Predict the 3D structure of the following.
Amino acid sequence: MPLRSAPGRGPTSALDPELIGEVLSVMKSLATEMHMTMVVVTHEMGFAREVANRMMFFHEGMILEQGTPDEIFESTRYPETRRFLDAVL
């Protein structure tokens, strides 16, 4: 049975653009220096690629694909994922 997602907003979705980098920097520090586990909903793909060790791509409320950042960015299996990445990168 596919996992359905609940509506969610990313940690930077309501921030002024000048604050986004600061928040992402703190989150990166928590992940890399303090080894904190996080589950993050984001459209900030550069951040996700740099910090994540596992990623999931949701489409229409369902997990379409999941894997390492390299698998998601370099070897996408679905055209929906590729279209999204092409649009935001």
